[in-house]
Specification:
Blueprint: H1 2-17, H2 21-38, H3 44-58, H4 63-73, H5 81-88, H6 93-102, H7 108-117, H8 120-126, H9 134-143, H10 146-153, H11 162-172, H12 176-183, H13 190-195, H14 211-227, H15 232-240, H16 244-255, H17 259-267, H18 272-280, H19 285-294, H20 302-314, H21 317-337
Helix pairs in contact: 1-3, 2-3, 2-4, 3-5, 4-6, 5-6, 6-8, 7-9, 8-10, 9-11, 10-12, 11-12, 11-14, 14-16, 15-16, 15-19, 16-17, 17-18, 18-21
Length: 338
């Protein structure tokens, strides 16, 4: 069987060497249709044969063709396993999403490996799977944005750890839709349901009253600190997921200053307040750039970037820590006098 498959792949190579893109896509499309038609009657050896040939073809295809293949092959129970895995790990969301949603052949190791590094569209696709165990939902909740959090909370087949639920409940304090989905679940631990009793009066945060969003972020970050150390890498992941408030609250906690101080530094017209906070906890240049990029859709002007680079290189950790402590103390004195 193996010798015959190798010969078939070699023959396909020769056939496709001079074939147009359209012809190669047509061959793959026909093979997919053939497999879908006969799949219920195919034995292991036959599936293996299709797997080798289709994987070989698919890896030479453009994104559009691979996306179509993913959509058609993923729901089939005995789909070619190596092909399914290749599609699931594809960095293009158009290719991986249909497979992540529907393929039953992916192992837990595959799913968790993908969840740890993929983008938000892939995480959202994972939330649509029929069943999700705690190990996987912990990663999804940790890395997911608001849409992902709502989707996973609304999946009746998802199971959550206590820490996973604690994070969702914390975010729900500033997210009415997430609160509604958690309220509809019958497996929220009693202690967390009591903590979230203010769901009934929840309202979306407004620009004039950001305290609710900050409080929700503090609940979430506090749970993360109880679960383990929060590192620069973790905060970078939150920034990549669009969760700037959680990133700023965590930065404040690491620096030993009030959350509002980090929020104000982020919204300051100058990058300097944020620079001092980041240097005080020994964070690197990359995270400063990420924070600045998250503030605006426009690219930082070159002259500002040069100034940031020079200021970062010139500022010592010791000086940054001294300035941060002084500013925090001055802030406390002002608060005591109010």
């Amino acid at each position: 069987m193996a010798t015959a498959l190798v010969a078939l792949v070699q023959q396909l190579d020769r056939t496709m060497a001079g074939a147009s893109t359209e012809r190669r896509e047509s061959i793959l499309h026909d093979l997919t249709s053939l497999f879908a038609e006969y799949a219920p009657r195919l034995g292991t050896d036959h599936v293996r044969a299709f797997d080798m040939v289709m994987l070989h073809l698919a890896r030479s295809m453009e994104e559009v063709a691979r996306s179509d293949l993913s959509r058609r092959i993923a729901p089939i129970a005995n789909a070619p396993p190596r092909l399914i895995r290749d599609l699931a790990f594809d960095p293009a969301a158009a290719v991986s999403v249909p497979t992540l949603e529907a393929a039953t052949l992916l192992t837990l190791d595959d799913l968790t490996a993908i969840a740890r590094v993929c983008g938000q569209p892939q995480l959202l696709a994972l939330t649509r799977r029929k069943t999700l165990i705690e190990l996987l939902t912990d990663i999804i909740v940790e890395r997911g944005d608001a849409a992902v959090s709502r989707a996973v909370a609304g999946n009746p087949g998802a199971r959550f750890s206590l820490d996973g639920y604690r994070q969702l409940v914390g975010r729900s304090l500033s997210d009415p839709e997430l609160a509604a989905r958690l309220r509809d679940r019958d497996d929220v631990p009693d202690i967390l349901a009591q903590e979230g009793a203010l769901w009934d009066g929840i309202a979306p945060p407004s620009p004039d009253d950001p305290a609710r969003a900050i409080f929700a972020a503090e609940v979430f970050v506090g749970a993360q600190f109880r679960q383990g150390e929060i590192t620069e890498t973790v905060i970078v992941g939150w920034l990549d997921s669009g969760r700037e408030t959680e990133a700023l609250v965590a930065l404040a906690r690491l620096a030993g200053v009030p959350s509002a101080m980090a929020i104000e530094a982020y919204h300051a017209p100058s990058y300097e307040p944020l620079l001092y906070l980041l240097r005080s906890v020994r964070f690197g240049w990359k995270i400063l750039k990420l924070f600045m990029a998250s503030k605006s859709d426009r690219e930082t002007p070159p002259e500002v970037m040069r100034g940031m680079t020079e200021a970062f290189q010139a500022l010592s950790v010791t000086t940054a820590q001294r300035v941060v402590r002084m500013n925090a103390a001055r802030r406390q004195i002002d608060a005591d006098h109010d």
